[in-house]
Design a protein that fits this description.
Elements: H1 2-18, E1 24-27, E2 38-42, E3 53-57, H2 64-70, H3 73-80, E4 83-88, H4 110-126, E5 133-138, H5 140-151, E6 158-162, H6 178-181, H7 189-199, E7 209-215, H8 224-236, E8 245-248, E9 255-261, E10 267-274, H9 285-292
Parallel strand pairs: 3-4, 3-5, 5-6, 6-7, 7-10
Antiparallel strand pairs: 1-2, 2-4, 8-9, 9-10
Helix pairs in contact: 7-8
């Protein structure tokens, strides 16, 4: 019986290493997963040596396969050789937990624990580079992007949050925070920055860099949250409020890109304002990949 179990485990591991590249494949077992998340994985036909990992997070009501088919990250992976994880929240509504104390605390568990297990799995099974892990997401996935960057700055190198809200804006007992979603939560930069620092009080390393994207006509998560997130992350990244550059028409006519750089001129935050843009818009995957530096690997 023991030999049979060993043989079965060995066959499963071999299948995971040899499964077809360039296809979205579900991974059934990937480690600790307290909230029952599902995992789909996209490995491009040509993988870079020690590939980078992109965690791509869907919106409420969505799934990992939905986000795979509706965004251009897999095509970018084909071009640049990184691996994409497409998780799925499986609770009713398929929203990510961005409100509980567990989710907002380093090592606290909830959805972040399962997401980190997925990353560990890819590192172990595909010899991926643990120092090159990135995260992006839209709506609820954009919220979770900011949660992960705040609570796990030791894991992620950078993130891109689309139509999200600041870290901790949804904090509380309920899954949905109407005050935050309506844009009625306003704090100082210091008041926004403190919850991020308190999420992992022992952390003293370099913080992940960040892109923020938000449309002025967002009907689901009010555009006010864009300004509040800028206050939060310029404070956390110790950037002050000084803009290093403002460019209109990037990446398209509706968008204005504002960059914030440190004293050495390194851009740590890019903020994209979409004039007249609603909650749902196409994620410019090429701009995300450029910001992450995945096009230079």
């Amino acid at each position: 019986m023991a030999l049979l179990l060993l043989a079965t485990a060995g066959a499963a591991a071999l299948w995971q290493r040899q499964r077809p590249a360039g296809e979205l494949v579900q991974v059934a077992a990937f480690g600790e997963n307290p909230t029952g998340l599902a995992m789909h994985l996209y490995v491009p036909p040509r993988v870079s040596p020690r590939p980078a990992i992109l965690l791509a997070l869907h919106y409420c009501t969505g799934t990992g396969p939905d986000f795979h088919s509706g965004t251009g990250y897999a095509r970018q992976a084909d071009r640049h050789g990184f691996i994409v994880i497409y998780p799925s929240a499986t609770r009713d509504g398929h929203c990510w937990d961005v409100h509980s104390t567990a989710a907002l605390t380093h090592g606290g568990g909830s959805d972040p624990r399962g997401l980190l297990s997925m990353i560990d799995h890819v590192v172990e099974q595909h010899a991926a580079d643990r120092t090159q892990v990135f995260v992006t997401g839209h709506s609820s996935g954009g919220m979770m992007t900011q949660v992960l960057l705040g609570a796990y700055p030791d894991v992620f190198r950078a993130g891109a949050s689309f139509a999200g809200v600041p870290f901790g804006c949804f904090a509380g007992p309920e899954e949905w925070n109407e005050q935050c979603s309506l844009g009625q939560t306003t704090k100082s930069a210091q008041e926004w920055g403190d919850p991020v620092r308190n999420a992992f009080p022992g952390f003293s390393g370099a913080r992940p860099t960040l892109q923020l994207w938000h449309g002025t006509e967002d009907e689901a998560l009010n555009f006010h949250n864009f300004g509040e997130a800028i206050k939060q992350w310029t404070n956390v990244l110790d950037l002050g409020a000084t803009q290093s550059s403002v460019v209109q028409g990037v990446p398209g006519r509706a968008w204005t890109r504002t960059r914030y750089a440190d004293a050495g001129g390194k851009v740590l935050l890019e903020a994209y304002r979409g004039e007249g843009v609603p909650h749902d818009f196409t994620n410019p995957a090429d701009e995300v990949v450029r910001f992450f530096g995945l096009d230079a690997r």
